[in-house]
Write a structure and sequence with these properties.
- A seven-stranded parallel beta sheet has the order 3-2-1-4-5-7-12, sandwiched between helices. A two-stranded parallel ribbon has the order 6-15.
- Helix 1 packs across helix 6.
- Strand 4, helix 3 and strand 5 form a beta-alpha-beta unit.
- It is globular.
- Helix content is about 35%, strand content about 20%.
- The longest helix has 17 residues.
- The relative contact order is 0.13.
- It is built from eleven helices and 15 strands.
- It has a domain of about 210 residues: 3-Layer(aba) Sandwich (Rossmann fold), CATH 3.40.50.720.
- The protein is an alpha/beta fold.
């Protein structure tokens, strides 16, 4: 049985477990002891490995451990060396390289934020990266590190999944809607993209088998929505008042810089490569399907 290492055991990573544990011997890298997470991993027969991507000396056990790697760990919120540098991915690669046998495949979950503002255009994976935020710049750096490694002899085949806004029943902006936080009016609004967390988990597992080396994929559903329409859809699904719509100038007076940064970028992701090459059939192909399922779970 092949050995698979999960790096970054967040929500999406945990959703892969039912899909993985019958096919692979699964290991999970944990930064610290977490009783709830440990119980969930034990239930699926996952072996826990303790180490911290911010402390490379703790990663020695990763050398030669796994045939396959799912890299879900995000870059740090800020960088000591550079705001556009991801030391965690660098430390992970260094740890894996120490093994006599290297992983054969590595899947990395990145973000569609690497493209920056595209003016609402429909873009494919070949669109140049033009990140505007520091967090997106760190993702670009992580992708570049992995691509360089993937091109060296004997290195794993690296596939990159670029995800937009991830949602699920417990990952909805309900509190923001209840606070009556405003959204942009139609004139100023931006296009946004979404993927259900279950479909992103399935795409991660599928990429292990079908992802092409040094290839990027948009893991996005078929919806074409402006951001305010997304919030309206969530509000309607949960019988909440729709958020007020304001101009961008008014929004800048009341919303945080972090929220405003998402309202400054507009793009529509082409997901044809996901469907053709990975042969993905989305469980939730649009927002309506995903929100209907979320409503039933609530």
């Amino acid at each position: 049985m092949q050995r698979l290492l999960i790096v970054g055991c967040g929500d999406v990573a945990r959703r892969t477990l039912p899909l993985l544990t019958r096919r692979y011997r699964v290991y999970a890298l944990l930064r610290k002891t977490d009783a709830t997470l440990s119980a969930e991993l034990s239930r699926f027969g996952v072996t826990r490995i303790y180490g911290d991507l911010d402390r490379p000396e703790t990663l020695r056990r990763l050398a030669g451990l796994a045939n396959l790697v799912l890299h879900f760990a995000p870059p740090p919120d800020s960088g000591k060396l550079s705001a556009a540098f991801d030391p965690r991915t660098r430390h992970l690669i260094a740890a894996l390289q120490r093994g006599k046998i290297l992983p054969r495949r590595l899947i990395y979950i990145s973000t569609s934020g690497i493209y920056g503002d595209c003016g609402g255009a429909v873009i494919a994976e070949t669109h140049p990266a033009q990140p505007r935020s520091a967090r997106a710049k760190r993702r670009v750096d992580a992708e570049a590190q992995l691509r360089r490694w993937g091109r060296t002899p004997g290195a794993p085949a690296v596939s990159i999944l670029r995800a937009p806004g991830i949602y699920a029943a417990e990952r909805l902006p309900l509190e923001r809607i209840r606070r009556n936080d405003p959204v942009l009016n139609q004139v100023d609004d931006v296009y946004t993209n979404h993927i259900h967390a279950d479909d992103l988990a399935r795409a991660s597992v599928t990429a292990l088998r079908r992802g092409r080396p040094n290839r990027a994929y948009h893991v996005s559903d078929d919806s074409t929505l402006r951001m305010a329409d997304w919030f309206d859809a969530v509000a309607d699904a949960f019988s909440l008042p729709r958020p007020p719509r304001v101009s961008r100038c008014e929004a800048e007076k009341v919303l945080s810089p972090a929220v405003l940064s998402f309202m400054a970028e507009s793009r529509r992701l082409d997901n044809a490569r996901l469907k053709k090459e990975l042969q993905m059939r989305l469980i939730y192909p649009n927002i309506a399907a995903g929100l209907a399922a979320a409503r039933k779970e609530s």
